[in-house]
């Protein structure tokens, strides 16, 4: 075995146990991600200068929205996994659909659930759907980053076989004897750090003044980042590679890039928020 090859550091899947209450790393990632996202969203809403006018949502409305989006992410994520990744199994074992502690969440399904939550809440509270979508997607990379770290800790969704000379190639305990890419960390960097940084820079440059610009950018950039990550990630065993070596993650990300580009184009063409220009007299 090459000297630089890394044995996967085995973690306890349980992050916290208090008597009968057991919190696993995956659940903890969701909890911390939602809390940090809520804190960051509140900071954005408080800064009117970022919007060019008063923020389109109040702090009490944001507090109410957190429950809506949490339900949307969980229901959508699980539904997406059942439909996109393992439908034959769940048709035979329908009772396991509700067993979330066993893992199995789809980002693309969770995103659709989040979209539904945004649309329903915005219409009920007379809020701009695009602006609420901007807030939601601006904070989403925080949860994505923590979720990928949880995937790594759980030794799941590991990468494809890697050249043993790769310094950070790892032997995963449930991934066979060959070294693999720690693709969960690649995705944490792309979908979390890179995406968050790009959106934060855009916000600083006034992107929130154009409703939908952050939303469209998130959708498009995530789609690109996911396709890049899929080149290093081992496909789900029940699906394997699809047409021409494509994976389900790649196929589901292509429409995201297209839709994101359309939303970006419409947002750029829309007049930015802010005081109306004065007409010389």
UniProtKB/TrEMBL annotation:
Pathway stated in the Swiss-Prot or TrEMBL entry: Protein modification; lipoprotein biosynthesis (diacylglyceryl transfer)
Main localisation: membrane
Chain sites annotated for binding a 1,2-diacyl-sn-glycero-3-phospho-(1'-sn-glycerol): 148
Molecular function per GO: phosphatidylglycerol-prolipoprotein diacylglyceryl transferase activity
GO BP: lipoprotein biosynthetic process
InterPro entries (UniProt xref): Lgt
Pfam families for the chain: LGT
GO cellular component: plasma membrane
Locations listed in the record: Cell membrane
Keyword annotations: Cell membrane, Lipoprotein, Membrane, Transferase, Transmembrane, Transmembrane helix
Top-level division of the source organism's lineage: Bacteria
Membrane topology (UniProt): Multi-pass membrane protein
Transmembrane residue ranges: 27-45, 65-85, 105-122, 129-150, 185-205, 212-229, 241-268
Biological function: Catalyzes the transfer of the diacylglyceryl group from phosphatidylglycerol to the sulfhydryl group of the N-terminal cysteine of a prolipoprotein, the first step in the formation of mature lipoproteins.
Family membership noted in the UniProt record: Belongs to the Lgt family.
Identification of the protein by name: Phosphatidylglycerol--prolipoprotein diacylglyceryl transferase
Organism, as annotated: Bradyrhizobium macuxiense
């Amino acid at each position: 075995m090459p000297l630089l090859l890394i044995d996967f550091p085995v973690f306890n899947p349980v992050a916290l146990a208090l008597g009968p209450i057991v919190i696993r790393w995956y659940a903890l990632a969701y909890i911390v991600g939602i809390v940090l996202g809520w804190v960051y969203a509140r900071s954005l809403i408080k800064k009117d200068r970022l919007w060019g006018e008063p923020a389109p949502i109040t702090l009490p409305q944001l507090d109410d929205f957190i429950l809506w989006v949490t339900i949307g992410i969980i229901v959508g994520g699980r539904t997406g996994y059942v439909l996109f990744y393992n439908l034959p199994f769940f048709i035979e074992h329908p009772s396991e659909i509700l067993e979330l502690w066993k893992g199995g969440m789809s980002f693309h399904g969770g995103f659709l659930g989040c979209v539904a939550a945004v649309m329903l809440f915005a219409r009920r509270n007379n809020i701009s759907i695009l602006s609420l979508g901007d807030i939601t997607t601006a904070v989403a990379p925080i949860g994505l980053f923590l979720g990928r770290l949880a995937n790594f800790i759980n030794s799941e969704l590991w990468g494809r076989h890697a050249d043993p000379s790769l310094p950070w190639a790892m032997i995963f305990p449930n991934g066979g004897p060959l070294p693999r890419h720690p693709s969960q960390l690649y995705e944490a960097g792309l979908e979390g750090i890179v995406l968050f940084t790009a959106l934060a820079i855009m916000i600083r440059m006034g992107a929130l003044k154009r409703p939908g610009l952050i939303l469209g950018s998130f959708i498009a950039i995530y789609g690109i980042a996911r396709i890049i990550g899929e080149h290093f990630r081992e496909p789900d065993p029940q699906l394997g590679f699809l047409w021409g070596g494509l994976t389900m993650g790649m196929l589901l990300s292509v429409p995201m890039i297209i839709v994101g580009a359309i939303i970006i184009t419409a947002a750029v063409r829309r007049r930015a928020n802010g005081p109306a220009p004065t007409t010389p007299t």
